Amino acid sequence: MPRLVGLARFKPTRMSVVGFWGLGIAWAFTATAELTFTPAPDWLETVGVMFSMALLLPIATIIVDINAAVRGRLDDIADKDRASLRLVYLGLGLFAALPVLTLTQAMRASGGVVGFTDWVYGVEVLVLLGAFSAWLFAYVYHVAPPMVTRDARRVQQWHLWLTIDGVAIAVFAMIVGGLVVGFTWAGGGADGAPAVGDGFESTADAMWNYGFAIARMVGLMIIAVAQALLFAYATVAWLLSDNRDAVLAADPVLDAGGQEVNEELEVVAEAEPGWLRIGTIALAAGIGVFLLIVFLPSLESEPAEPTILADESRLFAEGSDAALGRDVYLREGCTSCHTQVVRPIVTDRGLGPVSLAGDYAHEQPMLLGVARMGPDLMHIASRGGVTVEQLKNPREDRSWSTMPSYDYLSEADLAVLVAYLNGLR
Ligand code: HEC
Q1: Cα separation, 121 vs 103, whole angstroms
Q2: Contact indicator for 21, 281 with CB cutoff of 8 Å
Q3: Residues of the chain with CATH 1.20.210.10
């Protein structure tokens, strides 16, 4: 932003320092929003709610700070570097939606519906492919040697609008699709069957029949196409340009027309924020984090006692087939589609006994998972288990299955994987 604004002397304001640290700290803790209704202690769930709300503050601070910096200069910047400016604001707008989305996940009233659905990944797409890419592009547009001739502006526009459309379509499909799936689980699907085994078809239907799965795919592909377009154009423009050396030799801070901008910009060393102050804030933040994640948990009266379930079906002797299978499960990323936790809410009815903290007493790491793109596997053995054939060819029996085929795994890996799953009673 300082470069865009053309500030001769760049001095981070106090507000931007507060915004930066506030964001870093608050955002990290919103991760606990994914634990709503799990056996994690209640206070940890409350942390997710607290920090989702607290996140609003640094985001507001950053927006106010940036607006103060550009006040009165907006038209100027827009003339010189409209593409970068748009991208900065796009990123801010997308990021501002984050607290609302994580709060919905963290609060018990809504988290039971959206938790473990596509919603979870929709939020990630919004932030990673949306906000952060927008800022990255803004930066790249602004400092990269102009990839440019007269068409560059048009390419940038296409790139920008395709990216916005792609993110909007994908995120909309995942957020709304997630809601629909959540309500499907709560309502028990069309035939009232719980979302396991054949009953998971109504979950797949919820995503496919209303077009959410297609929209998600289309949105993500549009994003990819936009990046390919920009990259291809930049490469060709570069190869065809006859003043490559001049471009390389030039001050990188050029606008799209190859004009120099903000030439008097320099970061003044002594105007850098006081390292002492930043150090103090960092130390305070560190102590706060320590209190929250080390000290507070130790106040929990005592570690959870292993339950009967833990002792009888989730104790994996080192080197046993089940233990090796668990490693394969972890390595293959089954956790990105499968959870192993049953929450005490209507959404999870029919998945088996509600999970307790003690159920995981023997496991490290615990494989709770974050989303159910496939059924929960906490009690998979109790409902018939699984065969090697099913993992190799999931669509054999369930034509609607979106599970990838694992026929590339070795027979040994498949055998221990099945041994592990068929022990999860
Ligand atoms: C891309 C998401 C995805 C990944 C990754 C994935 N699965 Fe699945 N899985 C599904 C879906 C969807 C279903 C439901 C349809 C079916 O049974 O094939 C399913 C079903 C299952 C079932 C049957 C569950 C039941 O209730 O009958 C088992 C067992 C299973 N998966 C194990 C695994 C294992 C083990 C891995 C890792 C090696 C894995 N899955 C990776 C999506 C996934």
Answers
A1: 15
A2: yes
A3: 2-283
Task: Give the model confidence (pLDDT) of 360-392 as tens digits.
Answer: 999 988 999 999 999 999 999 999 999 999 999
Give me ligand 1 centre to Cα 375, in Å: 7
For the Cβ of 116 lying below 6 angstroms from any atom of ligand 1, the answer is no
Q: Domain 308-421: give its CATH superfamily.
A: Cytochrome c-like domain (1.10.760.10)
Binding site membership of 337 for ligand 1 (Cβ less than 6 Å):
yes
Backbone angles phi, psi at 254, to 5 degrees: -120, 155
6 CB under 6 A from ligand 1? Answer: no
Over residues 187-232, the pLDDT tens digits come to 865 567 888 999 999 999 999 999 999 999 999 999 999 999 988 8
The answer to whether the CB of 53 is under 6 A from ligand 1 is: no
Inter-residue contact 196 to 376 (CB < 8 Å): yes
- 11 pLDDT band, cuts 50/70/90, is low
Q: Is the CB of 373 under 6 A from ligand 1?
A: yes
- Please give the Cα distance from 338 to 369 (Å, whole number): 6
Helix axes 98-106, 74-96, angle to 10 degrees: 10
Name the residue with higher pLDDT: 286 or 151. 286
Nearest C-alpha to atom 28 of ligand 1 is from which residue?
A: 386
How far is it between the farthest Cα atoms of the chain? Answer: 75
Residue whose C-alpha is closest to residue 125's, from 6, 216, 230, 255: 216
13/19 Cα distance (integer angstroms): 10
Tokens 């699709």: give the residue: 177
CATH 1.10.760.10 placement within the chain: 308-421
The architecture in CATH of the region 2-283 reads Up-down Bundle (1.20)
- Range with the largest mean pLDDT of 22-31, 83-92, 107-116: 107-116
pLDDT of residue 150: 55
